[in-house]
Amino acid sequence: MTRKTKDQLSKSLYLLLQEYPFDNITVNQIINHSHISRTTFYRHFHNKQDVLTYFFHNDIVPQFFPSKTQDSYYTLAKQTILYSRKEKNFFKNALIDSQNTLIHLLINKYIQLMSTKLPKLTKTQYDVLSIYLNGTMITSIHWFLKDDEHSIPEMLYLFDLAMPDIIKSIFDKS
């Protein structure tokens, strides 16, 4: 029952994010939309941010980062961008919250995934990878939120141009 209730609440938040910015959504809206009591909500979550985090880990992560994939960085970056475009309303409304926790969740998960897909990294390589992935994720989000005129292949090409040699050599070996 716990998983079902959490899923119902997170689905309600997801549907509300199709229409409203995260900052404008209240716990009352989530519970009214899901037909779940306030007491039950607080038994499972502390606040609406917890619901968003739950949704991220259970619904977004499997879409962005398939667990058994052996795909290249290019393929993962393309999958991420295509999924973001498909879920445009959700991401536009979820990413404009004042705390931007979703951005940090995305970046940290992306760094974790990429570092596990690569051979053993030195501290310097890991730090450079982290800086590069932070930059590409923030750039992707700005590109996405502003409806930039660059196409997906153009953005992927720019990310490739910006990739430091130390990171390119790691990806070439994987």
From TrEMBL:
Per UniProt, the keywords (alphabetical) are:
DNA-binding
- Source taxon at top rank: Bacteria
The UniProt record lists the HTH tetR-type domain at 3-63
Q: Which InterPro entries match?
A: Homeodomain-like_sf, HTH-type_Tx_Regulator, HTH_TetR
Q: Does the keyword DNA-binding apply?
A: yes
Any one Gene Ontology MF annotation carried by this entry is: DNA binding
Q: Where DNA binds (residue ranges)?
A: 26-45
- Tell me which Pfam families the record gives: TetR_N (PF00440)
Which PROSITE patterns does this entry report, sorted A to Z?
Answer: HTH_TETR_2
Keyword DNA-binding part of the UniProt annotation:
yes
- The name this protein carries in UniProt is HTH tetR-type domain-containing protein
Organism the protein comes from: Massilimicrobiota timonensis
Q: What does the organism's lineage look like at the top?
A: Bacteria, Bacillati, Bacillota, Erysipelotrichia, Erysipelotrichales
